[in-house]
Specification:
Order of helices and strands: HHEHEHHEHEHEHHEHEHEHHHH
Strand order of the largest sheet: 1-2-3-4-5-6-7-8
CATH superfamily of the largest domain: Phosphoenolpyruvate-binding domains
Structural class: alpha/beta
CATH class of the largest domain: Alpha Beta
Strand content: 5-15%
Distance between the termini: 39 Å
Largest sheet: 8 strands, parallel, barrel
Number of strands: 8
Helix content: 40-55%
CATH topology of the largest domain: TIM Barrel
Number of helices: 15
CATH architecture of the largest domain: Alpha-Beta Barrel
């Protein structure tokens, strides 16, 4: 590979995320629950996508986020999202790391091979629960520190970002969560995630405790953490990455309920057609023009007449 080719080669997603973390902006990463929602996040112009474990469980299984998905299922989900958005960094939920430090080694390697930019895992006892649900338990600090060290050692690229989350606030109190965060940072975690602070004062205390470490803020729509403005997070200074894990899932659910209600009442969607994305616009968004271009490029006599006609029609449209 020549120098020119190297200069033009796209940056790995982990490198892109590192650059964002080192930059001046607050990184906003809306949650995605499947490949389509990930593409919508990318289309909207966000610099990163958050693969929500809550959303994965809901979309893959139709079940709550209580540790039902396996590591391989989550990695496959992450791979599809990373493939769908190209080079946009995907930050992937990895629950508890799926076992002890030896399991975490494989978890990190599999997620890194999937093409995501970062992995996030927490210090809950398995099976885990959503960070804003009741009934959680946490492992010892020593156990989580060992997992973080294993994760750091396991990654192939030093640009692959390790995010350590603690759920101790709900179990042991804020002071314990802060102590855990500091030890996880010292163990090598790149970003610290103190889950579910319950007041503005707690959010501020976390920021003051980690002035030299990038913090992740979970803007959990409807969760235990009070809503804050973008400017408030900026003013605190320590928060660097903000995730919005379930907003896309909740609004999609609301929209689908509305459509299904209309069909049930009227016997067809005729009354709500004006609220739907136009069919052709949707085909363009999910990449049909690119497929047609490939069909035109590799067209042969073996293609069916219908495919040939579609390819020729696309050529005529381009010439107009």
């Amino acid at each position: 590979m020549t120098k020119d080719m190297l200069d033009k080669a796209p940056l790995p997603p982990g490198t892109k995320l590192r650059q964002l973390l080192n930059g001046p902006e607050l990184i906003l990463a809306p949650g995605a629950f499947d490949a389509l929602s990930a593409r919508l996040v990318e289309e909207a112009g966000f610099p990163a996508v958050y693969m929500s474990g809550f959303g994965a469980s809901a979309s893959v299984l139709g079940q709550p986020d209580v540790g039902l998905l396996t590591m391989t299922e989550m990695v496959d989900h992450a791979r599809r999202m990373a493939d769908a958005v190209g080079g946009t960094p995907v930050i992937a939920d990895a629950d508890t790391g799926y076992g002890n430090p030896i399991n975490v080694i494989r978890t990190v390697q599999e997620y890194e091979r999937s093409g995501v930019a970062a992995i996030q895992f927490e210090d809950q006892v398995a099976p885990k629960k959503c960070g804003h649900m009741l009934g959680k338990e946490v492992v010892s600090i020593q156990d989580m520190v060992a997992k973080i060290k294993a994760a750091v050692d396991a990654r192939r690229s030093s640009d692959f970002v390790i995010i350590a989350r603690t759920d101790a606030r709900a179990v042991e109190g804020l002071d314990s969560a802060l102590e855990r965060g500091q030890q996880y940072r010292d163990a090598g975690a790149d970003v610290i995630f103190i889950e579910a602070p319950e007041t503005i004062d707690e959010i501020r205390t976390i920021a003051k405790t980690f002035t030299d470490t990038p913090l992740l803020f979970n803007w959990a729509e409807g969760g235990k953490t009070p809503p804050v403005t973008h400017q408030e997070l900026l003013d605190l200074g320590s928060y660097k990455l903000v995730i919005f894990p379930i907003g896309t899932l909740l609004v999609a659910t609301q929209a689908m309920r509305g459509l299904l209600k209309a069909i049930k009442e009227a016997g067809s969607p005729i009354e709500v057609m004006d609220k739907l994305v136009p069919f052709q616009e949707f085909l363009d968004f999910i990449g049909l023009p690119g497929v047609r271009s490939l069909e035109a490029k590799y067209a042969t006599n073996s293609l069916s007449p219908r495919v040939v006609a579609a390819v020729e029609e696309q050529k005529r449209q381009k010439q107009k």
